[in-house]
Amino acid sequence: MYAPAGVKTNHNEFPIPDTQRAWVLGEPGELSITNKPVPVPKKAEVLVRIDAVAICATDLEIIYHGPPASIQGGLPFNKNFTPGHEYMGTVVALGAGVDEYNIGQRVAVEIHAGCGQCKRCREGMYTSCHNYGLNYGDVDKGHRANGFTTDGGFCEYQVNNINTLVSLQNDMSDEEGTLVVTAGTAMYALTELGGLVAGESVCVTGPGPIGLMAVAVAKALGAQPVILTGTRDNRLKIGLELGADHVVNIRKTPDVVAEVKKLNGGKGVDYVVECSAATSAVNDAVRMVNRGGRVCLAAFAHEEVPVDVAHIVRNNIYIYGIRGEGKSATHRAEAYMRQKRFDATKIHTHTFPLEELPTAIRYAKDRVEDAIKVVVKAKMGAAQKEAAE
Ligand SMILES: [Zn+2]
Ligand SMILES: [Zn+2]
Questions:
Q1: Distance between alpha carbon 298 and the CA centroid of its chain, in Å?
Q2: Which of 18, 389, 387 is closest to 173 using CA atoms?
Q3: Which ligand gives the minimal distance to the CA of 141?
Q4: What's the CA-to-centroid distance between 59 and ligand 1, angstroms?
Q5: Nearest partner of 275 among 315, 332, 322, judged by Cα
Q6: Is the model's pTM score more than 0.85?
Q7: Which of 160, 230, 285, 306 could form a disulfide with 272 if both were Cys (CB 3.0 to 4.6 A apart)?
Q8: Angstrom distances, CA of residue 62 to CA of 77, 299, 367, 380
Q9: 210 near 229, Cβ under 8 Å?
Q10: From ligand 1's centre to the CA of 365, what distance in Å?
């Protein structure tokens, strides 16, 4: 029985085993399920029973290529590393001194705990912690980024710092709970662009999960018009349901920049949130904004991209890069979701049991059956299991 010294548990209601099922990464693209000890929360940490974890494009990057994961200063392969970072669950054990959360509280979990002591962490930019990945041996700065620099969520239990937790209401489903961090990333993008977007025009490029959440959050913040560009009609349709005023299928529109301007009354938009990672996206974005406009880059491009610097300088355009979900943006996103200001579940398409993670990854990677957000759950009800099959 799991009973580490100094850790509060409630075995009657939330029994905790000593070991758990956990997926680990071997060679690139190679996952296997194994048994791992259930980790022990330290000071300011809790043990979270993972009730649902969503698969993110960045998980696929890590599983097949490695970065941006960094395990013991290097690539994450063959290090008994468990990926997965978009999870929610239930607090089942409290580390020393924790009274901010109770056992039984449902929570979404932010990815980045940061070291809490560097310049950026002190500014609330913990996703840009200067001690990223330093959590081992002589360079243990206490940094954690679930599924990037420490074990993540493709398992049953994980420890998390209390500063990464977002309380969830019981009327929010597990699947929706996994999307709090996705919406939080979109919220962080809009925060960095200035935050006050009511009445401002916003174009979101790329209707992936973050792009679709950027549409929803921008609309909830009062932006108008909100324009979404992309290549897949089924995703653009979801964008309309989440609040986009206009959508543009760039496959059917030869000059997307002209079209966005046309939809905005002939002028460039105030803000672009770039979520497509397309090679042409940055130059398109800086041409879609008006003079003095702002562009936030939220997608990891796969190659170096040539950029029209003269256009950016001549037009006083601001460009921001964001990493993840900084400045407590997840709390603001959760508030909108709690108030039902948008229905994030529209981007959830599939659920699989934890044992079927490789199938779930295939669905996410190959977009089988138009998959967008694919979730895995360690404990699935029989009815849910059937629905997923
Ligand atoms: Zn992610
Ligand atoms: Zn830090």
A1: 11
A2: 387
A3: 2
A4: 7
A5: 322
A6: yes
A7: 285
A8: 9, 15, 18, 26
A9: no
A10: 14
Q: What share of the chain is helix, strand, coil (3-state, %, to 5)?
A: 30, 25, 45
Counting ligands in written order, the one closest to the CA of 326 is: 2
| Chain mean pLDDT for the chain | 95
Ligand 2 center–CA 222 separation, angstroms: 33
Lowest mean pLDDT among 41-50, 86-95, 194-203: 194-203
Tokens of 141: 């700065």
Q: How many angstroms is it from 311 CA to the middle of ligand 1?
A: 32
CA of residue 185 to ligand 1 center, whole Å: 9
Q: Which of 167, 343, 109 is closest to 242 using CA atoms? A: 343
User: Is the per-residue pLDDT at 95 higher than 50?
Assistant: yes
Any idea which ligand is nearest the CA of 146? 1
CA–CA separation, 376 and 389 (whole Å)? 13
In angstroms, rounded to a whole number, what is the distance separating the alpha carbons of residues 42 and 159? 8
Ligand 1 centre distance from Cα of residue 364 (Å): 12
Q: Which helix (H) or strand (E) holds 309?
A: helix 309-314
